[in-house]
Design goal:
hydrolase; CarbesteraseB; globular; about 0% strand
């Protein structure tokens, strides 16, 4: 809801919020996620730059993710299937584009 509100949605109805977010240009979503006000104090301290992350759902009829991914992997509680991992030659360009005004701080 914080992201939707930051982008101008005033509803709290899940279907309305979903429709709103689906209508927002992707770059607006990317820019809005950099709004420091959308982060918790812990996220600010840890300098987490992406607000979209797994959400643990311990309770309910059919929880999708019952613990943090790292803990599940450490315990071997995941589907053991073949995985192909790769990258593209422009993989980091999105981060660079977002942080570009501050690029002089890291070079």
């Amino acid at each position: 809801l914080l992201l939707a509100r930051d982008l101008g949605c005033t509803s709290e109805d899940p279907d309305t919020v979903l429709d709103f977010l689906m209508s927002v240009p992707a770059m607006d979503l990317v820019k809005s996620q950099n709004n420091e006000e959308l982060r918790t104090e812990k996220e600010r301290v840890q300098r987490i730059s992406i607000i979209f992350s797994p959400c643990v759902e311990k309770y309910g009829n059919a929880p999708f993710l019952t613990d943090y991914p790292r803990k599940l992997m450490e315990r071997g509680e995941f589907a053991k299937v073949p995985v192909i991992i790769g990258l593209t030659d422009k993989e980091g360009m999105l981060v660079l584009a977002i942080k570009q005004p501050h690029f002089d701080l890291v070079s």
